[in-house]
């Protein structure tokens, strides 16, 4: 297992943002955290990474605790947060160089820039990149340490179809080589393209946990989208 | 080691691409130094001349611009943009990038210090009367105090807008009313009372004493006041600091 989470709970004041969540991720597996806005997806990721206070029975990333062994863990774990912002006036190559300097071992940068279609943008300020290019840069940076596990929070929100497909293709290739992925997404086509297992959250609670096939069976729906709406409780809206 | 070097190199590039520090921290005090050289009286019959006293004031402008403006704005900006949060999930502590920024800001303040000193020495034959060692020690103490205030502002403000407002208030008040630009001595008495509250006034007072060779005269009170301001700011910064 690259990631083990047992009974994780995040509390803001009186409100439980995440309530007793448990899941595991194996090497080469992609795990999807789904749910409406505010269901607790980002809070779960922040708590798993140890940057949000939480209580848990078990929390182990690549065999270690993110609270006590943060240095060792983050040599092997990449993170792309929802909406990545950069320093004003930072160029693409500076962003990459800075990120590389943080790790002991890093991936081949020219090859990464090539695969993510940013090779000719190196001297550009990050601010002038398009939304899709900036998002690709964020994912590229998460892959710089050659991680065993990568967290992708809203991977392709705001991207056009071509850019999304390109990112999926890259991730599937890496998954086949053993990369474990935890992702959140609002797009069911993305979840179907990438995820082996999903967990649906509703107001911080697990309402479904299993494979896509199991979700279809359990909900009695024919598409993942319908199954998701069934579990996430968004059905009654429309 | 190479991490710190790369962080310094890249943060340095970012700071120097923005021309704020160049204008407010370096050009402005150097020009002011030149103007003071022509305008202020060099009559030293009453002890030290106005011009001699002004040196201690003008060298603090760079400290003020970097410590009370540059530093808090960067801290607030990096927190607001989630840059500190991104560093939290790497093997390196976000403190390292803030430290790199602090070093870059400080190096700009030192460039400003050298620029002003060169103008006073080369253009106007100025010479400090006291010991350089004591003078530089007091300068370092003033730097520490101003950077603590800046860190405090950067740590407590809720957002970028508040950071802008509070650092501007701190910067302009101290620029105008602590003797950095308009000498303390020419201000009316009631303004001097207000000036006595501002920490930089005490810093400049100390620097004036040591630059004119009057080290022993009443340095205790300003030292204590600056020390307390530094302590309170650092404790406050430590207590209220948030990564995101």
UniProtKB/TrEMBL annotation, chain A:
Q: Which InterPro entries match?
A: AAA+_ATPase, ABC_transporter-like_ATP-bd, ABC_transporter-like_CS, ABC_transporter_ATP-binding, P-loop_NTPase
Tagged with keyword ATP-binding: yes
Identify the residues that the record assigns to the ABC transporter domain, covering every copy: 3-228
Per UniProt, what is one GO molecular function of this protein?
ATP binding
- Is ATP-binding included in the keywords of this UniProt record? yes
Q: Which UniProt keywords apply?
A: ATP-binding, Nucleotide-binding, Transport
Which SUPFAM superfamilies does the entry mention? P-loop containing nucleoside triphosphate hydrolases (SSF52540)
**Family of this protein:** Belongs to the ABC transporter superfamily.
Tell me the protein's name.
Answer: ABC transporter
From which organism does this entry originate? Answer: Paenibacillus jilunlii
TrEMBL record, chain B:
A Gene Ontology MF term for this entry? Answer: ABC-type transporter activity
Family listed: Belongs to the ABC-2 integral membrane protein family.
Where, per UniProt, does this protein localize? Answer: Cell membrane; Membrane
Which residues fall in a coiled-coil region? none
Q: What is this protein called?
A: Transport permease protein
Q: Does the keyword Electron transport apply?
A: no
Primary subcellular site in the record, as a coarse category: membrane
Domain ABC transmembrane type-2: where?
Answer: 20-244
> Which PANTHER family would you find in this protein's record?
DOXORUBICIN RESISTANCE ABC TRANSPORTER PERMEASE PROTEIN DRRC-RELATED, TRANSPORT PERMEASE PROTEIN
Which keywords appear in this protein's UniProt record, sorted alphabetically? Cell membrane, Membrane, Transmembrane, Transmembrane helix, Transport
Recorded topology in the membrane:
Multi-pass membrane protein
